[in-house]
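Quick start: what a row looks like.
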Amino acid sequence: MPAEMGSFYEFGDFRLDAGAKTLSRGNETVALTPKVFDTLQYLVEHAGQLLEKEELMQHIWQDRFVEESNLTFNIKMLRRALHDDAQQPRFIETVPRRGYRFIAEVKQTSRTPSELLAVTAPKRRGKLYWAIAAAVVILGTALGLTSWSLLNAHTAVARSAPILVTAFKSERLSSTGSAHAVITPDGKYVAYTNETGGKQSVWLRQLATSENIQIVPPSDSRYLGLAISHDGNSLYFSRRDQAGALFLSAAYRVMTFGGIPVKIADQAEGWLSVSPDDKQVSFVRCKYQPDDYCSLFVADNDGRNERKVLTRQKPIRITSNQFSRDGRSLVFAAGQSLNGGRDFHLLRVDLASGTESEISHTAFFSISRLEPLPNDGFLFSALETLDGESRIWELSATGETRALTNDAEDYTDVSLSKAADKLVSTLTSNSFRLQVAPLAEVNNPKVLIPARTVAFAPNGRIVYSSNDGDIWSINPDGSDQRQLTNNAFHDFSPCVTPDGQHIFFASNRTGANQVWRMNADGSDQVQVTHGQGGFPQYITSDGKYLYYYSGLQQTLWQVSIGHGEETPLLEKRLYEPAFSVDGKLVAYFVRDAQRHSSLEIVSVDDRKVLHTFALDQENVDPFKIVWAPDGKSVQYIIAIGTEKSLWEQPLTDAKPRMIAGLGSDDIDDLAISPDGKSLAFTRGHWIHDAVLISGLK
């Protein structure tokens, strides 16, 4: 069925308009990015035919070099838009290691001349929107704010919110890839953080002239968040000083046009807000203790008269908070995301009485930023589910919530001018790649493909989770890449059985992270845990038990394969557990009340602590442990400030030795090959891109 200018394709409840490049379901338009739409159109035009992956990639990207994961991501977005299930598909069938087939019945119809005339103007307008959106380059990264998603967002909020309703302009704020940004109430300036040579500073940009001036000079500090007073004269920020204690941060105030920062609160996280009269600030302080995990505070704008408003017990965190327009209450976000579920809620607390009330029944995986709207509502950025995108949402004065963006970008910050005609948002992405290197040459790795978590199979193949939320396998030299899972959910943390026959992995398919099992080729996927859930760590050689880590409790558990009984293995709170190859020992990190870290080695049989190694380096943050195949030592990574390094701890020696420095990039996961000669790790960094969107009304 070749495409024609006036062609409609109808399947299920959907209608694809090839001329206007739109997909609709009933009277509702379904938001798709251009490449995802092109993928769907090509599949629909060749309904019933097996389309090889190479053919699809050639058609969609036309000789541009892209990785197979780009196609997989497009298919995943289509399944989400069509509410299709990869395991029991109604529309898109996956043919393992070959390609995809559109299996629904498709009817092709043509438009009448009047219909063609009716869509001509919107189509031209869509091109204009796309031209503007394609010009958005944030900190050197091109963004995909497409006409399809934005036009749908405009339509969705036209009734009340003054955001994303009309044509807009976008412009770059800087080019470093690590920015927090806020706009002054008059909409004339944007304050933002900037990074050069590993040091961060704060700058002010005059929007009319694009002139930039430095407010706070460069330092080793890491900025966590910004807020600005309602009169525009004072800028507040929270930062963590790398030269100080690792887990402590502080809040400061500085004049917007420059001056000496004044500390106003110790141990303040990155979520700050300013009262409408500019006399008070609110902030979050997290002690991470069982009875005082996170607390919300209010203080005078100079830090005096600090008082605790409310406290949450472990594991509930408090994140963004904002004063109400009358200054009598605070709206705040609280919840936990350790188990992969949706547990964050928006609440309000009356500052005089301390009375709390939930103001939205919608739950989220995480909530990043709140920003007051002129109509007594709020904007906020939130991730509804672990497998979704962080969107900009509106909270109305009546408690109704709805998403204002519907594209593939992750929006994690919002800041709005008083007139609500300019919006600054921060988009988040990452550059994590799977890298493989000989243990003796860790600093000379072979960089393969985008990846987040990684494990070795007994035959030396690498099993990993990619940014698309699916699990893949590949040879260490980058050859023979195979996809093992393919669905709309988030599959990660693979763990291969000693015989190489099965792969256990974490998935949020049931709404929270549970452990699943599949054959090594990806077939026969079944759920293993149903209660505590978490991340698989080790499968006994006889296949009878799985040991897994509870993200919620931060303890080790075991489940009897086949019987399903889940019981604690080690009930103490621990971090980054790793089992020896024979499963007889487990290594992990523990922290005392002063946050000092130690490495412990425990016998799995009798639960006795056999070795304790204190990490004596000051301000050290340890993570990621792997065992040598002979069980005589462990390797682990530590971070001191931004610098990472690889260490080895022999069980017979009290002193560890440094194997290699690993630089300042973040390391997400680490695995050692079965012969102990190579390491696989995922390394990269998070990119925070700040964009100014103006012309809103």
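That is the whole record. The radius of gyration is 26 Å. The domain at 178-314 is CATH 2.120.10.30 (Neuraminidase).
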